[in-house]
Amino acid sequence: MPTLTPDANLARQIPPVLGNVEIRSAGGSGDVYSDLPLQLEHVKSSADCIVCQSNANSRESTARTFIDSGASEHCWAERGDFTSFKEVRGTYGSSAIAGDAGKFEIQGVGTVEFGTRAGGVYRTIRLEGVKYTPSFGHNLISLSALDRRGFMGSWGRGTLSVGKPGGTIILEGVGKGRMYEVQTIEPPTKANSARSHEKAVDIGTWHRRLAHVSIPRILRMASKNLVDGLHIKSKKVLGMCEACLYGKATRRPFDEKVVHETEVLERVHLDLFGPARTRSRGGAEYMMLCTDGGSAMRVPYFLPDKRANTMLKEFHRYRAMVLATVLNY
């Protein structure tokens, strides 16, 4: 496999080749993956079941993650991504750059866990024996370390895939410049920490949190105690909601005469939205809306990207669904 060198356009250069690093307290690199989709843990107590799930503690990794064929070990730039960690002092690695300029400090070793989408399935990836290298600008997943664990890789058409010998893809990188970037998603433990503290806020805040539900409905839910954690500090409404006004605004119809479909599945309209400002916990940034012109039935599909094969796969799902439910195929 040819050596992948860092892209010159990246903000910070990454030493493409790591030298032999000896850390006696840590074992070799190991990689464990799970076929289970990412799911939130079950909330057992009503006190934890909060309507709004936003908190300053919720965060996404700011460092980008790449699959690197030149790195001999996994290297991670962010301390907060480690689920287990052992601090190491006075340990250095070496890159392909000659002399002291090629040295970099390793400040710890541990286990990193993250979610990703590979082969159309959400998977949890756990990398063991990862070196903590804060001087790096990005996270590196070592292709040779994956090879030592028995995984196999293939690349082509801008995608690098890593999988088991049986063919199951567990990790996928998309070409970014001269490297392959992995889309990382918060694991369930981090997504769970986004649950908001039970704190009373005004009715306007609840109106925005609940996707602009009507004020009387929110007050009814609170008065009848239908939702845990719906504590209202002030019921005073300060004017009309600007977002609601824009959403209910109308415009004059188009002048062109349009002949609408009269039969079910006579024509299906596809609308693509995105990218969203905030990525969902499942990793989606786009939405493809399939609308049947005859029945006006709408089915949304949430996508991690807008690549043609991603959209085509979801459209095949839509086609199979309508054949089974509408046409009884």
From TrEMBL:
GO molecular function: ATP binding; DNA-directed DNA polymerase activity; endonuclease activity; metal ion binding; peptidase activity; RNA-directed DNA polymerase activity
Pfam family, any one: gag_pre-integrs
GO annotation terms (biological process): DNA integration; DNA recombination; proteolysis
Annotated ranges, domain Retrovirus-related Pol polyprotein from transposon TNT 1-94-like beta-barrel: 66-151
Domain GAG-pre-integrase: from-to ranges: 191-248
Entry keyword set: ATP-binding, DNA integration, DNA recombination, DNA-directed DNA polymerase, Endonuclease, Hydrolase, Magnesium, Metal-binding, Nuclease, Nucleotide-binding, Nucleotidyltransferase, Protease, RNA-directed DNA polymerase, Transferase
This protein's record includes keyword Chaperone: no
InterPro entries: GAG-pre-integrase_dom, PolX-like_BBD, Retrotran_Ty1/copia-like
Function description: The aspartyl protease (PR) mediates the proteolytic cleavages of the Gag and Gag-Pol polyproteins after assembly of the VLP.
PANTHER family hit by this protein: TRANSPOSASE, PUTATIVE-RELATED, TRANSPOSON TY4-P GAG-POL POLYPROTEIN
Official protein name in the record: GAG-pre-integrase domain-containing protein
